[in-house]
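Many introductory courses stop at the sequence. We go one step further.
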Amino acid sequence: MVTFLRVVWLPASVVGLVLGWLWLDAAMGWRGAYLPEVGLPMVVAGALLSLWCAAVFLFVGKGSPHPFVRKTKYLVTAGPYGVVRNPMMWGIGSLLIGLALTLGSVGLWFGFAGFVLFVSWFVPHYEEPDMERRFGQAYREYCRQTPRWWPLGHRPK
């Protein structure tokens, strides 16, 4: 039961926050940009990228993308992780923006902003030190060659 709760709390929290942001829209009478023709492809792309990242973690890294459950045994640099070090963030971000546009939600834009702030703190303060401790020089070399967030304009030294 404890393992189940360790796995479920993060996704359940995300679903709860999304529902809370949608409730906020209704409570405040907010209506945002309603562009499902843009939003739906972003939702699909974000979901596919997130699933791809999870599959690479499972099959290559022999672990989970969940940061507090089953850490990978091997450093993952394949697939989307060869382009940026945090492609899962692109997937989740695309999902949030896509949902905001598909549903015309202002609250989800606030949620996206909160997500960006959280990830901007979490990655350098928790995830990267943990990865460096676990994978040492291999991770430092990966960081030198692969950008954290933005794939364009990166030139390995």
